[in-house]
Amino acid sequence: MSNVVLLVEDDQRIASVVRFHLERESLEIHHAADGNQGIELFHELQPDLVILDVMLPGRSGFDVCQGIRASNGKQPAILMLTARVEEVDAVMGLTVGADDYVRKPFGVKELVARVRALLARRQAWTAAEVGGSPGSETAGAGGGEDNEELTTPAALLRPPLKIDPGRREVHVHEELIELTPTEFDLIYFMARRPGRVFNREELLDHVWGYDHAGYARTIDSHIARVRRKVAEAGGPRDIIQTVFRVGYRYRDSPEA
Length: 256
Hints:
Structural class: alpha/beta
Radius of gyration: 18 Å
Order of helices and strands: EHEHEHEHEHEEEEEHEHHEE
Strand content: 15-25%
Number of domains: 2
Strand order of the largest sheet: 2-1-3-4-5
Number of helices: 8
CATH class of the largest domain: Alpha Beta
Oligomer: single chain
CATH architecture of the largest domain: 3-Layer(aba) Sandwich
CATH topology of the largest domain: Rossmann fold
């Protein structure tokens, strides 16, 4: 069964080129030419991936992204397209819930690579949700990072957090916090390796799964959102700590 991709782009020339190349990847492509139609098709199709332009008639790409993330339906991966050179445009997209972004003008190979990686990760999310069981809970650091289980790993206890990869849920003091799929992947990856310092390039490689040269802001924005959501639920604000001029680490100290 083909993955369903919703392309929300008002530039017909760009939409035609993107559609042509993604259909060659055996993807089912649906196109919306404005933000309002994009929201309607999202609810109708429940796509696996939404490719979303920022500057749209009707409703902006930011508004559409927020609407998707606020919905109760299946959560897709979201890739935003931005024509602006200002970094703030990309940061805003990540802040409202996009998983990744590509700057216009973009190369077809770059876009296809991003789409492949996001869909591959989404298939992993779905497999964990459908085929796995939560399993027994484990405390402490758990197994080494090279000892991947064929079955769904057990829930990971990092008090006051409980991270359940089978359900793809994070609880803080038993309160469920709402994370995007990429936010979950990021905190789960780091929580399995508490105390280890990762630079941005390593996190981009391990969590996003491909070269993100020039896109380090993606990491900063996702970490800021994870920190905020954990803190709003009563957890520590420094759950992911900044290591000056190096990168980030998941804190390895017990709950205060």
